[in-house]
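Design job #97: recover the sequence.
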């Protein structure tokens, strides 16, 4: 029996996924959580083989959760199930140690097969997205991405500097670098473009 933990912030979606996976004779959904922190707490209790997570949830993202799992619980495989058909998200997911990446509009049997595949040590990635992911690479560094995300969400440079323990000038430099790399006119345009590409 493959034991699955679902991390999905939309209760209806989480319940439907649990019901669908529960129909499979070799799959068991041991818990459904609504955010990364509760998923992490349940993972640390043990008894989970595969984590199926959304990307955007309250608090930490599914990608941040996946990176934490890779570092502390390497035997747990991670499948991302998301609406984001963006190559940038896939590249970041693979960098975070994710073994599977599927879109929510995929047939239900594809998710079950993906869970089985990653449990065996394989990879399960939406084929069209995989081809697209080999295109444009993410030009941003981790720190540029972090600063740009905070700026795009409304934080002023002074606040970003305080939260990240950086100088005000360093924050401005990171923002300038991100704007220049993305070839746009300001931080808001940079944030929008990076979100559209899946780089944030």
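Job complete. Output follows.
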């Amino acid at each position: 029996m493959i034991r699955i933990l679902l991390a999905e912030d939309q209760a209806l979606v989480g319940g439907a996924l649990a019901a669908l996976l529960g129909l499979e004779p070799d799959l068991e959904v041991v818990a459904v959580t609504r955010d990364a922190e509760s998923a992490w707490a349940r993972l640390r209790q043990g008894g989970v083989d595969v984590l199926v997570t959304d990307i955007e949830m309250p608090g930490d993202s599914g990608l941040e959760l996946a990176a934490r799992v890779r570092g502390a619980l390497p035997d747990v495989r991670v499948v991302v199930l998301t609406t984001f058909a963006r190559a940038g998200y896939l590249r970041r997911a693979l960098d975070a140690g994710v073994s599977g990446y599927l879109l929510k509009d995929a047939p239900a049997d594809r998710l079950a097969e993906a869970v089985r595949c990653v449990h065996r040590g394989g990879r399960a990635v939406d084929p069209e997205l995989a081809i697209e992911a080999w295109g444009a690479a993410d030009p941003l560094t981790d720190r540029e991405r972090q600063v740009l995300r905070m700026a795009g969400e409304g934080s002023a440079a002074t606040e970003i500097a305080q939260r990240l323990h950086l100088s005000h000038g360093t924050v401005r430099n990171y923002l300038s670098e991100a704007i220049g790399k993305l070839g746009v006119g300001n931080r808001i345009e940079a944030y929008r473009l990076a979100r559209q590409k899946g780089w944030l």
